[in-house]
Amino acid sequence: MPRVAIVGANGHGRWHRRAVAPLHAAGRLRLVALVDVRPIEDEPAAPVPPGTTVHTDHREMLAAARPDVVIVCTPPHTHLPIALDVLAAGADLLLEKPPVLSTAEHRTLAGALAATGRACQVGFQALGSVALAQLSAAVGQGRLGTVTGIGTVACWQRPDSYYARSPWAGRRTLHGRPVLDGALANPLAHAVMQCLAVAETVTGTPVRPARIELERYRVRPIEVDDTATLRIVTPGGPPIVAAVTLAGEDFVAGEVIVTGTTGRAVLEYPTDRLLLPGDPHPEEVPGRQGLLANLLAHRADPDGTPLIAPLARTAPFTAVLEQVRQAPEPTLLDGDLVTAAGSGPERVVTVRGINAVLRRAAEQGALLSELAVPWAVPPARIPLAAQDD
């Protein structure tokens, strides 16, 4: 029975504890250790099993608990050193997204995986969606004709308390070290990765971004974007446009819009609702393969069960993320452009008309500056060198 540990057991780590609990109860794994720098928070849906040890240092845990699989759910800038320690200890990884912050870190981690023979699954859980598989099959079968564009739109809200959740929240550096929060890098990273997955179906191989065009905005005194439009230009593949905000007027969960010469498809990726050409309305497609269960199956049969989100598949995302981190600071939107509601930690700031213009951007494959939005700024246009995994 695989011995599993979680490093970063509070915060989003509680989601992983809830995912582990039924597998532990079913005897498919044994949760042996939790690690966090703070006292372990209660999670009614996933009580800590008897015999599970608790630690504040992951190295101490690795030596004492000797896990077979380690889930790492810590701030992104800590991922690489913890991951290298886990691999050196002989364990496989389930590493939260974003896995690393640069192509150099990606290469270092890939090298360690090759040297140790261990496996690394990255926490893009939406890639396990049956709805995504059906969308990809429709694209591959030509039901949309030639794909001419891939877009995504998502409009969420985050209160002031969201940016007080941790010392690195809303930051691009911390104590002189690169970190990265922001709409594109963190909560809406799944939207970008889903688009890259569809592009992979179109091209037959993980895409290699040749250029990104980026507009970043913010409604608070933070160092990262809470609103952005991003275009990814790929050689031989359709352009990808992401139009996202954490300052939305109304909630849009997240849609991937695939446009072709003979049809159009829309996947609402958080809910697995899919609209294909000829369908009268979107339908929920049940079934999502869990990343941890897939990793356990891969450990048992490496040749017969491929990983859903191996590190190599995320290389295009990391290449884009690196440029987002290095791009100029986002433009502040204030004054009559924004509306605030509520007070204290629950205050929410929204951008007037943002939902409509972001939807236009995603559907038309355009940046806000190309849609004559009066407050939009010229994009940063960044060529990307060819990258190897």
Uncertain runs are none
Strand proportion, as a percent range, falls in 25-35%
How many helices in DSSP terms? 9
Oligomer: single chain
**Biggest pleated-sheet summary:** 10 strands, mixed
Question: What gyration radius follows from the Cα positions, in whole Å?
Answer: 21 Å
Give the termini separation: 32 Å
One letter per element, helices H and strands E, the order comes to EHEEHEHEHEHEEEHEEEEEEEHHEEEHE
Beta-strand segment tally: 20
**Mean pLDDT, nearest integer?**
96
What's the helical proportion of residues? 25-40%
Q: Please tell me what the overall shape is.
A: globular
Task: Kindly name the structural category.
Answer: alpha/beta
How would you summarize the topology of this molecule?
Layout: E1 3-7, H1 13-25, E2 30-35, E3 53-55, H2 58-65, E4 69-72, H3 79-88, E5 92-95, H4 103-116, E6 120-122, H5 130-140, E7 147-157, E8 173-174, E9 177-178, H6 189-203, E10 211-218, E11 227-233, E12 240-245, E13 247-260, E14 264-268, E15 273-275, E16 283-284, H7 291-300, H8 315-326, E17 331-332, E18 338-341, E19 348-351, H9 354-364, E20 380-383
Parallel strand pairs: 1-2, 1-4, 2-3, 4-5, 5-6, 7-12, 10-17
Antiparallel strand pairs: 7-13, 8-9, 10-11, 10-20, 11-12, 13-14, 14-15, 15-16, 18-19
Helix pairs in contact: 3-4, 5-6
Folded structure, characterized:
- The protein is of the alpha/beta class and 389 residues long.
- It is built from 9 helices and 20 strands.
- It has helices spanning 13-25, 58-65, 79-88, 103-116, 130-140, 189-203, 291-300, 315-326, 354-364; strands at 3-7, 30-35, 53-55, 69-72, 92-95, 120-122, 147-157, 173-174, 177-178, 211-218, 227-233, 240-245, 247-260, 264-268, 273-275, 283-284, 331-332, 338-341, 348-351, 380-383.
- The strands form 4 sheets. Strands 7, 10, 11, 12, 13, 14, 15, 16, 17 and 20 form a 10-stranded mixed sheet that branches. A 6-stranded parallel sheet has the order 3-2-1-4-5-6, with helices on both faces.
- Strand 10 (211-218) and strand 11 (227-233) form a beta hairpin.
- Helix 3 runs parallel beside helix 4 (103-116) and helix 5 (130-140) runs parallel beside helix 6 (189-203).
- The mean pLDDT is 96.
- This is Gfo/Idh/MocA family oxidoreductase.
- Keywords: Oxidoreductase.
